[in-house]
Design goal:
Elements lengths: L12 E9 L5 H17 L2 E10 L11 H10 L7 E4 L5 H11 L3 E3 H12 L3 H15 L3 H13 L5 H39 L5 E6 L5 H9 L16 E6 L6 E6 L9 H6 L1 H8 L3 E7 L5 H15 L6 E6 L15 E2 L8 H14 L19
Parallel strand pairs: 1-2, 1-3, 3-4, 5-7, 5-8, 8-9, 9-10
Antiparallel strand pairs: 6-7
Helix pairs in contact: 1-4, 3-6, 4-5, 5-7, 6-7
Bound molecules: guanosine-5'-triphosphate and magnesium ion.
The site of guanosine-5'-triphosphate has 22 residues, from helix 8.
Length: 382
């Protein structure tokens, strides 16, 4: 086999994945989480060249993995031309610093990878502000590590530890000030969004929410005939998008909102920063929880999405669960009779979905059905 190309000749980084198997955690689950980390790495622009799992009673406070395992990895990484090592759980600043010392390559934890993806994806000013805020909140407790590197580099020319402290304090002040500024900016954006929501026509809002890659944007396109960006990548959508659609041939108009996807171990800074985007879900009259029923771990994804929605304060009574990607289910696979099965790709089940949304809205009295004549005959509403 050819030797791997050196970093300078590659456009994508080589990533090596590391996960822990804690007591009571089945092997398949650790694998599955690493598979998801691999998908995240791919989306963040890295090719996975290898992975390792270590069984431990608990993460090591100094190195996350054991010292022996770390030494073994350090010996293995150069042969794979690894540029970065990704850890499936969040690392403390100390763990990350110690790991970088041993492994001699940058180390990024799961939150860091998700942040990188969000940074690549953020387009609107709102999304960019939200991501930057999340990044700074993420970096703040890790500043000591950065300065640690710097002080080691310049240590040989007589910089004393005391000056390092001063620099650290100064960096912290700069970050804290910037965080405060971004928070104020987001408050303004928030206020504008709230005004927009208030000034919208009194149409009911149906938000599509769920695990990343479940098919929310594809379904949104189907329901609104819009060309929203849908892609087989994690976190294709970062901005909540709101567009008119109709519930039946008689043109019962509603607003559909497409939202950012959820993922397990979603960094809480990100959730907090995306609060104004996620408010679209919280304030919707109805939340359609889109589940990729063809995914081998759909039940876990459903649970994660439910947990995130609960933490946002979404009322479970206002949630309609929908199994998407029904076209991928084998003919022999049993279907749950009480759950709507749809396919955003083939269009299967969409009529039933529209009808059910309408029934739920009426039942919740969010949308007393307007007389047909009163509705504007807008084109493209069928
Ligand atoms: N086979 C099949 N594929 C689907 C279906 N719905 C969506 N997909 C595919 O699933 C992938 C993800 O779809 P998106 O609509 O981008 O998913 P999303 O939930 O918006 O994802 P994020 O914005 O990343 O959270 C795309 O490749 C879609 O073509 C479906 O019903 N059947
Ligand atoms: Mg999307």
């Amino acid at each position: 086999m050819d030797a791997p190309a050196p970093t300078a000749q590659r456009t994508r980084r080589h990533a090596f994945l590391v996960g822990l198997a804690l007591p009571g955690q089945p092997g398949w689950q650790v694998r599955e989480h690493l598979d998801e980390l691999a998908a995240l790495a791919d989306t963040a622009g890295a090719d996975v060249v290898g992975s390792a799992v270590q069984a431990r009673p608990a993460p090591d406070p100094r190195l996350y993995i054991g010292a022996g395992k770390a030494a073994e990895l350090a010996a293995r990484l150069p042969g794979l031309a690894v540029d970065v090592v990704l850890f499936d759980d969040d690392l403390t600043g100390t763990q990350a610093k110690n790991l970088e010392d041993v492994l001699k390559v940058p180390v990024i934890d799961r939150s860091g990878v998700i942040l990188e993806i969000f940074e690549r994806r953020a387009r609107s000013r709102e999304a960019r502000t939200q991501v930057e805020l999340a990044r700074l909140n993420y970096e703040l407790p890790r500043l000591a590590r950065k300065w640690g590197h710097l002080s080691r580099q310049v240590g040989g020319i007589g910089v004393r530890g005391g000056e390092g402290e001063t620099q650290l304090e100064a960096d912290r002040r700069v970050l804290t000030r910037r965080i405060a500024k971004l928070r104020r900016e987001l408050e303004h954006i928030d206020e504008r969004r709230r005004r927009q929501r208030r000034s919208r026509t009194a149409l009911p809002v149906v938000a599509l929410a769920g695990y990343t890659n479940a098919g929310k944007s594809t379904l949104f396109n189907r329901l609104t005939r819009d060309g929203t960006f849908a892609e087989d990548r994690l976190f294709a959508t970062l901005d909540a998008r709101v567009r008119r659609g109709a519930l039946d041939a008689e043109r019962w108009p509603v607003l559909f909102a497409d939202t950012v996807g959820f993922i397990r171990k979603l960094p809480h800074h990100l959730v907090a920063s995306f609060r104004s985007t996620l408010d679209e879900v919280v304030e919707a009259d109805l939340v359609v929880h889109v589940i990729d029923r063809s995914h081998p771990r759909w039940e876990e994804q459903q649970r994660v999405a439910e947990e995130v929605m609960a933490s946002l304060g979404v009322d479970p009574e206002r949630v309609l669960v929908v199994f998407n990607k029904a076209d991928r289910l084998g003919p022999g696979e049993p279907r749950q009779p009480d759950v709507l099965h749809v396919s955003a790709v083939t269009g299967e089940g969409l009529g039933a979905l529209r009808a059910t949304i309408g029934e739920r809205l009426v039942r919740q009295r969010a949308a007393p059905r307007p007389p047909f004549e009163a509705l504007p005959g807008r084109p493209g509403f069928a």
